[in-house]
Structure formats: C-alpha cells, structure tokens
Amino acid sequence: MRRLLLTGATASVLVAGTLAPSALARGGGDGCHPTPANQPVCPRVAAADSASFLDPTARVSGGEHVSLGEQVYVGPFAELLAAEEAPITIGPSSNAQDNVTLDARGGTGIEVGDRVILAHGSSVLGTAEVGVHASPLPPAVVDAGVQTYDGSVFMSFGSQVEDATIEVNSGVSALARVAPGVTLHSGYLVLPGKNVTTQAEADDPALGKVRYLNQGDVEFNEGVIHVNEALAREYTELYREDPTAVRGVNVDPGHTDFNRDRDLPSFAGREQARPQFRNRIIGEVYLSDPFARFADRVGDRVAIRADEGEPFVIGHVDRMGDDVIFHALEHTDIHVGDDVRYGDGAIVHGGGRVVLQGQPEEQTVVGDHVRLGAESVVFRSTIGDGATIGDRSAVVGTELPTGAVVPPDTIVLNGQVFGSVEW
Predict the structure, then answer these.
(1) Cα 250 to Cα 219: distance, rounded to the nearest angstrom
(2) Which of 60, 61, 317, 320 could form a disulfide with 81 if both were Cys (CB 3.0 to 4.6 A apart)?
(3) Euclidean distance between CA atoms 333 and 309, whole angstroms
(4) Is there a contact between 271 and 290 (Cβ–Cβ < 8 Å)?
C-alpha cells in the first residue's frame, strides 16, 4: 500500500465510516507505568504481542504518573515528562517516535488516545488531549464516503500541539501548530506550516489553515499504526534475546512483513555493533566514514533507524548536529552524498515519489555538499548537489535542482512553494 504524507494542499473529497468505541476510549489510564522496573518492556513480564516498548534512550520523568496502553512504541530519545499533578496517558496502539516530546509539567496533564501517531520531532505540551474525543465528521467528508476504520490521529514531523484538543480522525501536518484553547474537530487536518490560533481557523477550510480529511490520510495512518505495533513486538523479542542488542549501534529487529532480516550497520565497509555508543544507529545503514570519524562529527540524540525502510547509504559527513533523525517508510530507502551538513533537529525521511504513473517511485536522495538547516525536513524528495534548505523549512515530494536555496521557514510541496512556517 502506497502511503501519502498528511500534507496535501488541496481539500480532496472523501466517506465517513463508523467510529469504533475503542477510538473513543480514554485509553491507557489503567495501563503500564514505565518506571525503571518496566523499561524497556512495559510491563516487563507482558507477552510480546501485547507489550509496549520504550527505546532505552527514551527519557521518562515521573514514570509512576505515566500510563501506557498495550502495543505502544516509544522511539529513540523521545521524552515523556509527567508529574503527580500533570500525568500522561497513552492509549493502545499509539506511538511516540524519535525525539518526540510530551511535556505535561506546565499544565494539568496530557491524554493521548488509541491509535495516535506522534511522528518524529513532534511535541505535545501543557494540558492537551489528542485522539480522545470525537465529533461528527463534516458533511464534505461524509459525502465523499471516507472510511475511517477504528479512527486515528496523525501529528507529522516537527508539529506541535500546546494546551489544545485534537479529536479523533484529524491531523496536524509537518511543521504546523495548534495553539492554546483551540479544538481541531474530527475530519480536519492542519496544513503544513500553519499556526492555527483561533477556533474559526480550525473550523473553516476557506480561511486557508485546514483542509478536510481524505481516504489517503486514513490509509496512511493504518500503515503507520501497523508498523509501530510490529516494532513494539519485535523490539521486545529482540531485547529478551539479547538486552544489549537494543542499544547504540546495533541490529534492527527484523521478523516483520516490511523488514524481514536483521542487519547490522557498517562503517567504511565494516559491519559492527557498538552497544555503548551514545546515539542509535540501527539496521542496514551503510556509512562511508569509519566509526571514529563518524562519532567525532555527530552530535547527541541522533537516531538513524533503518528498521522499517532500508537501506540507508550515507556518504562522508561534514557535520551532524544534535537530534538529527533518519527514517524511511516501508519498502523505501535513502541515499545521501558526501560533505552534507545537518543542522540540529534535521529530519531526512525516505518515501517514494511518483514521477510518472505506472513507473517505479523515485526514492529519497540527498546530493553532495547539501546544507540542511536546523529542524528542516526532507521527505519523498531529491535534493540536488550544493542545495541549501533553511532552518525550519520542509521539502516534500519535490525534485530540488542543483544549487537551489530554500529560505528559512518555507514549505516546498510537490515542486511548488506552498507557504511559510507561521510560528
């Protein structure tokens, strides 16, 4: 199944399905508390097909006030920050991916429902509900016949929700934000880079901040949920076979329908595991640099995770900042050239890009001497040699020519400048 990013610029017409009761549950309230005794597997004695898994690099503060439902995956360097007066719950089959932040300490608690996707670098802050409640879908979505299955929510790369409510069957696109006091109702998605600050902006696509949910969005979410449930299960199995195998430079868990084999990363042609390394380099990753040179040139909290799509081929690194993330959709890969510089929090995400219908999808490629700004995003794109992508900009579904310059805070979508990052 080909998956599309929740960032379409047009309001595609869509069909309303029946929302299953599980999607309305305030999931996770009686779940597992990820205290040290319940990490990385939560609960520690759970069967693999029901356990939740937290990467050992994930940071949990106030774990007794955090509750996880079944089959939750928490990725490398994610942060779950709770307190007695500000608990966090995450419902079954949800995930908090690499470098995600849930920080409830400035509010009264964060509640994440069932089947919620918190993608790389996204954040939920203060007092917030994500995927807990639902309202009737808008007539445009009902008339289009969107089938919503069991309901879901998708928060895309670098998005943020602060002191706000995100209902079931909605989403927040890359580098977009929902501001305090706003409710994003079922059937609406915030467009890339938009800052929704009023209820009117959240409710009316004509104001240019949101669009209607479509069937492609729903199918994308189903695929992501399936992958992360499988990762929770297989990382649990891997940990139980060898606790060191889920740390540092190491194998991917394999044994899934999207990534069957376990592979080790290689540095300058040499496969190796280094469980004590401060960053997470996972699976079929081919790095041109010897390990010592790579380690010297990269920052902290870096996650290069080839446990879904593979392989990743990464040329000689000029400099890689903190919090950089590599990942790829199933059956896609990433190729990056030499002398690339990565700003703090940059995300390179593999995914196919359709150039001609009926032809194979173009994979994600970053050329030589490219400069990726802090918190920038590259997804389903080809970036030409010597190109520069500014801080907090996203290039999605685009072939960027040699030497191109994308200014800071700019969204480039399907080959066109879509708009600016408004916050």
Answers:
(1) 31
(2) 61
(3) 6
(4) no
Q: Give the per-residue pLDDT at 138.
A: 98
pLDDT value at position 63? 98
Neighbours of 404 (CB within 10 A): 18
What is the DSSP annotation of 316-368?
-EEEE-TT-EEEE-TT--EEE-SSEEE-TT-EEEE--B-SSTTSPPBPEEE-T
pTM over the 0.90 mark: yes
Of all residues in the chain, the percent with pLDDT exceeding 90 is: 90
Cβ atoms 316, 289 nearer than 8 A: yes
b/e string for 352-375 if b means 16 or more Cβ within 10 A? bbeeeeeeeebbbbbbbbbbbbbb
**pLDDT tens column, 201-235:** 999 999 999 999 999 999 999 999 999 999 999 99
Res. 356: pLDDT tops 90: no
CA-CA distance, 372 to 400, in Å (whole number)?
13
Check residue 23 and give its pLDDT: 32
Mean pLDDT value of segment 303-312: 98
How many angstroms separate the CA atoms of 328 and 338, rounded? 20
CA distance 230 to 239: 14
Beta strands in 131-206 (DSSP E): 153-155, 160-162, 165-166, 170-172, 177-178, 183-184, 188-190, 195-196
Nearest C-alpha neighbor of 58 from the set 342, 303, 283: 303
Which domains does the chain possess?
A: 21-222 (2.160.10.10), 254-420 (2.160.10.10)
Helix (H) or strand (E) holding 21: none
Distance of CA 378 to the CA centre of its chain: 13
Distance CA(73)–CA(254), nearest Å, equals 15
List of long-range contacts for 291-295, beta carbons under 8 Å, 24+ apart: 291/249, 291/267, 293/317, 294/267
